[in-house]
Design brief:
This protein is mainly alpha-helical. It is built from three helices and no strands. The protein has one domain: Methane Monooxygenase Hydroxylase, Chain G, domain 1 (Up-down Bundle), CATH 1.20.58.110.
């Protein structure tokens, strides 16, 4: 447990930041999972729109420092890769 006043304040500040960041982190995870479900469903138009929204949310969370920028880049890359594979498969059929 913290003993100094400044350490106690940092605990309070960290708790506020955690609360604020939790909702934003949950939002991008929800948007990414929705996009992945639409990709699996095979609907190119709605999937590409959902991916665009998810990528935007990932960029915003990385810009605010909630997740690391490389983490956001990796997630975006994987998502777009799945979308491109689905679109290539749809164009063949």
């Amino acid at each position: 447990m913290a003993h100094s006043r400044s350490a106690k304040k940092q605990i309070r500040v960290a708790a506020r930041r955690t609360l604020r960041n939790k909702s934003l982190r949950s939002r991008y995870k929800t948007l990414v999972s929705k996009a992945e479900k639409l990709i699996e469903a095979g609907d190119p138009e709605s999937a590409s729109a959902a991916v665009r929204v998810a990528v935007s949310a990932l960029d915003k969370t990385a810009q605010r420092g909630i997740i690391h920028r490389n983490n956001a880049a990796r997630r975006k890359s994987r998502l777009v890769k799945k979308l491109n594979a689905m679109q290539a498969q749809a164009s063949k059929a």
